[in-house]
Amino acid sequence: MLSREALDKVDRALTKYPPDQKQSAVLAALVIAQEEKGHLSTEVMDFVAHYLGMPPVAVYEVATFYTMFDCTPAGANKLCVCTNLPCALRGSVAALEHLKQRLGVELNETTPDGKFTLREGECFGACGDAPVMLHNNKRMLSFMTPDRIDQLLAELSK
Amino acid sequence: MTTAHPPLPADAYGPDALIMKGVDGLNWRLKDYEARGGYRALRKVIAEKMTPDALIAEVKKSALRGRGGAGFPTGLKWSFMPREFPGQKYIVCNSDEGEPGTFKDRDILRYNPHSVIEGMVLAGYATGTTVGYNYIHGEIWDVYQRFEEAIEEARAAGYLGSNILGSGVAFELHAHHGWGAYICGEETALLESLEGKKGLPRFKPPFPASYGLYGKPTTINNTETFAAVPWIVANGAERYLELGRPNNGGTKIFSVSGHVERPGNYEVRLGTPFAKLLAMAGGVRAGRTLKAVIPGGSSMPVLPGEAMMRTDMDYDSIAKAGSMLGSGAVIVMDDSTCMVKALERLSYFYFEESCGQCTPCREGTGWLYRMVHRIETGHGRPEDLDVLVNVADNILGRTICALGDAAALPVKSFIAHFREEFAYHIEHKRCLVSIPGGYATVPGVPLGEAA
Ligand SMILES: Cc1cc2nc3c(=O)[nH]c(=O)nc-3n(C[C@H](O)[C@H](O)[C@H](O)COP(=O)(O)O)c2cc1C
Ligand code: SF4
Ligand code: FES
């Protein structure tokens, strides 16, 4: 289900917690699984549950509680714009509108070619860099003015 | 200041910085930290065989108060940890920074990670605890990776492990990450999350010091709180206290966001006038005037600009002015901001992030958001303002965790200080703010019809 490489990463995470608290590694394991599989299907979540010795429903609960998990397929590039107030005071709403217009999608939609999914996020803890966006959860993009958004889209469309 | 890319200019965080002194964005490694005097506090404690009680007394004397939001005295919190507990105890660092407007812990972790590590080891020493976790906000993945690297460096140098600097003192530290849930910043939700569950806050009492991670005694502090400890131990509590004000020791990093020329982090002595902090951030953006400030993160009451200009930045002064210092996130709004629209966005946030466990919060945050939204989009009714305050009052103090209060306080304070703007929206179905280019519905356009 998951590659050896992915399982090695999960095993590394497991070393951080007491041997009888394997469940503590569930966030780490699901992040690793989502990265490898693109999204968290029921089969993937069941596998993680089995691997960590958790009831599957406990894993589903976690996967649906934390907003950066995708339980259904998203586009190859997930762009998440922070629109909370401190960012909104510095142009994040305009950044989001620019993205909608350039991509031709609304929030939570994916472009027909499957390349881009657009999301809205809450404070990333980076408000001094507003407008900020996350690309595929792990890459923080700062000061995303319309021209920098255009550069990013050009880079990602290659 | 965070807006520049490293290397940051000298004194980027201000001339009085202690935690961020000499930090340029590139010199985050162990050797750099040692060159700045890092791990001197830990070496001193070990060399002098300082007793845990003496260390706690020192932190108490410094008047260091928690930097995560509640401002609880740190030394006192440490003293609650049972000394003779037979099982494992835990030190947990709260780096789940997600309070809108707050971005200081990210800078501490990426530019000065060893200050947090040293602070956590000292907390372990003071409380007789040998294992720690740092729970880092999922949205700052690169920072999480850097912190893991810093842990490796500290371990290799003997600052972490089962025999720290050959003294027999043990402390092991691990980084853990979240994955997008504001509520996990609440300390008991954080513990649930660290146990691999949904982040649902627990009833208190019992407090974490008696029933924390895995049901074991646990001390939880904010990133900045831990990062302040090494300086106190190395330089003396007296000196730290004197830098601030009585009961408000030392320096505090304020994250200044919104309508200023230079948004960023500024570390100043507690008690610094707000006007001075605002000037460090370059002042209100050119051509505009100050309208309102939320001085402690989005969960705290908003204050009119004039009131802020008379206030000093410390816990007690801000409380006297009618708000709270909170996490030290200073959200600045100029005269192009519509207070109805601003509150609408904040109310949406609390509605989205309520974990749903308690009825007043789950239902109340929905009510608050829908009513403010209705006023903002031109469908408000004359009785709405009183109903809003009433709903907020029915949330306050009736919930498991403080998120309920965090949703209610902005509503009450926005209406208290800017009632005429809300009333104007309701009566005229238009925004009172007529300055283009700000955070307001396009001037002249009836509400609900703007793009
Ligand atoms: C909804 C909510 C969110 C919170 N978020 C954070 C946070 O992101 N970081 C933090 O340190 N404390 C946060 N807190 C406060 C913590 O519960 C706790 O008081 C703090 O971590 C204690 O550390 P300190 O004493 O060093 O401030 C939050 C509280 C609530 C109610
Ligand atoms: S106050 Fe809100 S967020 Fe806190 S426990 Fe209750 S429902 Fe959850
Ligand atoms: S409000 Fe956008 S990162 Fe904080």
Helix and strand layout, with pairings?
The complex is a heterodimer of chains A (158) and B (451).
Chain A: H1 4-14, H2 26-37, H3 42-52, H4 56-65, E1 77-82, H5 85-88, H6 92-103, E2 116-121, E3 133-135, E4 139-141, H7 146-157
Parallel strand pairs in A: 1-2
Antiparallel strand pairs in A: 1-3, 3-4
Helix pairs in contact in A: 1-2, 2-3, 3-4
Chain B: H1 30-35, H2 40-47, H3 52-61, H4 74-79, E1 90-95, H5 104-111, H6 113-127, E2 131-136, H7 141-156, E3 172-177, H8 187-194, E4 218-222, H9 223-235, H10 237-243, E5 251-258, E6 264-269, E7 272-273, H11 274-280, E8 290-294, E9 303-304, H12 305-309, E10 312-313, H13 315-321, E11 329-334, H14 339-353, H15 359-376, H16 384-395, H17 403-428
Parallel strand pairs in B: 1-2, 1-4, 2-3, 5-11
Antiparallel strand pairs in B: 5-6, 7-10, 8-9, 8-11
The complex binds flavin mononucleotide, iron/sulfur cluster (SF4) and FE2/S2 (inorganic) cluster.
Question: What would you note in describing this structure?
Answer:
The complex is a heterodimer of chains A (158) and B (451). By secondary structure, chain A is an alpha+beta fold. Chain A has helices spanning 4-14, 26-37, 42-52, 56-65, 85-88, 92-103, 146-157; strands at residues 77-82, 116-121, 133-135, 139-141. Chain A has two domains: 4-65, Orthogonal Bundle (Arc Repressor Mutant, subunit A), CATH 1.10.10.1590; 77-157, Glutaredoxin, CATH 3.40.30. In chain A, β3 (133-135) and β4 form a beta hairpin. The relative contact order of chain A is 0.12. The model of chain A has no long low-confidence stretch (mean pLDDT 97). Helix content of chain B is 41%, strand content 12%. Chain B has helices spanning 30-35, 40-47, 52-61, 74-79, 104-111, 113-127, 141-156, 187-194, 223-235, 237-243, 274-280, 305-309, 315-321, 339-353, 359-376, 384-395, 403-428; strands at 90-95, 131-136, 172-177, 218-222, 251-258, 264-269, 272-273, 290-294, 303-304, 312-313, 329-334. In chain B, α3 (52-61) crosses α6. The two termini of chain B are 34 Å apart. FE2/S2 (inorganic) cluster binds at residues 82, 84, 86-87, 123-124, 126-127, 130, 132 of chain A.
